[in-house]
Amino acid sequence: MIVVAFDTSDRVGSIALAVGAAAPSLAVLSPDAGPHGPRLLAEIHRLLSEAGLSLQAVDVVATTNGPGSFTGLRVGLATAQALGFGLGCRVGGVGTLHAQAEALRREGIRGVVTTTLDASRGEVYAAAFELADESVHEHLPPAVLLPARWLERLHATFGRAVPAFGAGAMAHPDAFSEARPAPPLAPALCAMVRDSPMSLSAAGPIYVRPSEAEVKFGRAPAFDLRQAIDAGERTGLH
Questions:
Q1: Which residue from 9, 10, 22, 68 puts its CA 20 to 30 A from 165's CA?
Q2: Cα 47 vs. chain centroid, distance in angstroms?
Q3: Residue 80: DSSP 8-state
Q4: Are residues 128 and 28 located together in one domain of the fold?
Q5: What are phi and psi of 3, to 5 degrees?
Q6: For the whole prediction, is pTM greater than 0.70?
Q7: What is the bridge-based pairing of β-strands 164-166 and 60-64?
């Protein structure tokens, strides 16, 4: 099985290619190099070329589907859906905070953790998971809250401090005093697909926070492939 996976939900993104049982190859999308959108397909082609493969060899495309940057999610999902349509391959998504937890588990972290993303407006996207040798169990589903409110929820649930990972915790060191960065998510997505193909959900966005369109008009806009790609090229996903 050949799997291409990518994460464009945050300022630092990642792309991975897994060929059979070999360790995935990785490309990191740094915000210093410009918007993720224009580089995403180019980096996918580069990883495939270095492996001696063509795009037509891909069996599965996986991406994070939220929460995260609204534009980043839409660009990632649009790219995944375009590849699936063009190649006739399977496409699916994994929740971003769940993918963080899976990446941590595969790096040897065990026990209860909270995974986070910076939600701007002084808030964090966060969830809580228990990492075991062979599984990830969700204790608290994704939410968007002020850091103090999330810490209260953690303490009410677990009665103690919980190790925090990810950009949300890193952006609020006053609340998360020992926060640590999350590893790149794309290799974990590849491994999840390879180990458990049914772990993928439908490739639709999970925003958690209402979009501006929902706030203004009471509904989310239709997911438009071309508009999502164009928006990523204009804004740099941030």
A1: 22
A2: 19
A3: H
A4: no
A5: -120, 130
A6: yes
A7: unpaired
